[in-house]
Write a structure and sequence with these properties.
By secondary structure, the chain is of the alpha+beta class. It is 36% helix and 27% strand. The strands form two sheets. Strands 1, 2, 5, 6, 7, 8, 9, 10 and 11 form a nine-stranded mixed β-sheet that branches. Strands 3-4 form a two-stranded antiparallel ribbon. Strand 6 and strand 7 form a beta hairpin. The chain is globular and about 60 Å long. It starts with a helix and ends in a 7-residue tail after the last helix.
Length: 329
């Protein structure tokens, strides 16, 4: 239930944009209102999941046949030999940036959180999942880099990256998403997206324009891993794409990498392993400038609460989606 303070504020300011450096809303009430909005979005997501499950149970034969047809179409595109190599994207003008950023982010993802005294602070520790951040601000805006390390069972690196990259599944696990537009279909493993996020009062609505690239890593850096895949997202803007801050949305600027590695027990390989044999090591790194203005203490409090929920929700979704399907390497 919304708190009384959030309810009063909504009644008083519902017709006004109150995000900004001159806002008079107290920081604790700003956080309270945003937290209430995020909780409502999560409740709506859980309701959609339950309704979807009930629909599948009551129409199992029809749903299964439709899903199989769609899945085969998606798999055909992603099973080509050059998927994940960037071969088809190398003639695009974005490729030099994509290749450079992916290489830089991969190097950073592989670095330990204690290397070089780089200031990482542990803020969430839940079993196999550990989350770290470094406190950084640019022009008063919080852009704290985040690094998460997690280990899950029953899925491969390819499967984890597949569900993170493919826009067909994004609404299932990214709860604040309102709309996804494919701006530039560069290649099957490289796309440019414009994502619009739900407005969470009292903050302004946000959008993000970024390229996304899925890649198989074959440098044998970790010889104990069966395979390694990454998805890298990075904000981009050129004259061909929708400009920033031209309408109701404030533009988010982001750099994200999801690094996943598959491990198999000794004596097992891709032909003999079952899902019970699969271990997936995950490293998730992000730096996000949310744009606009919001109190630093509020942003950090929201990140501390929402990032662990996001990673658990996403990995749980992939495990559930993959459990009854053939293993994808």
């Amino acid at each position: 239930m919304p708190s009384l303070s959030a309810a009063r504020l909504f009644k008083s300011f519902r017709h006004k944009e109150i995000e900004g450096p001159h806002s008079t809303i107290p920081e604790d009430e700003f956080f309270d209102a945003v937290e209430t909005g995020l909780d409502k979005i999560e409740e709506d997501r859980q309701l959609r999941v339950r309704l979807k499950f009930q629909s599948q149970q009551s129409q199992i034969s029809t749903t299964s046949s439709v899903f199989t047809a769609n899945q085969e179409t998606d798999d055909d595109k992603q099973q080509s030999e050059d998927f994940g190599t960037g071969v088809q994207a190398r003639t695009h003008k974005l490729w030099p940036e994509i290749d450079r950023i992916c290489t830089e982010q991969l190097d950073q993802a592989r670095q330990g959180v204690g290397d070089g005294g780089n200031g990482w602070q542990l803020f969430a520790d839940e079993g196999e999942m550990k989350m770290y951040r470094r406190e950084e601000e640019v022009d008063g805006m919080v852009i704290d880099p985040l690094k998460s390390c997690h280990v899950v069972q029953g899925v491969t690196a390819r499967e984890m990256c597949h569900y993170f990259f493919d826009p067909a599944y994004r609404n299932d696990w990214e709860t604040t998403l309102e709309d996804v537009q494919l701006v530039d279909n560069v290649a099957p493993d490289t796309m440019v997206f414009l994502q619009t996020y739900k407005r969470i009062w009292p903050a302004s609505q946000r959008d993000a324009l970024f390229w996304s690239h899925m890649r198989k890593i074959s440098d044998n850096e970790d010889q104990s891993a069966h395979d390694t895949w990454v998805v890298c997202n990075h904000s981009n803007q050129n004259e061909e794409y929708p400009p920033a801050n031209q309408g109701k949305c404030v533009r988010i600027y982001l750099t994200v990498i999801l690094l996943c590695q598959t491990y198999l027990p000794p004596g097992k390989d891709a032909k003999t392993a079952t899902r019970d044999d699969l271990t997936c090591k995950i490293t998730y790194c992000s730096t996000v400038n949310p744009g606009g203005w919001a109190p630093a203490t509020v942003l950090r409090a929201i990140y501390k609460k929402e990032y662990p929920k996001f990673l658990k929700r996403f990995t749980g979704y992939v495990i559930e989606q993959s459990k009854n399907k053939p293993i994808m390497y």
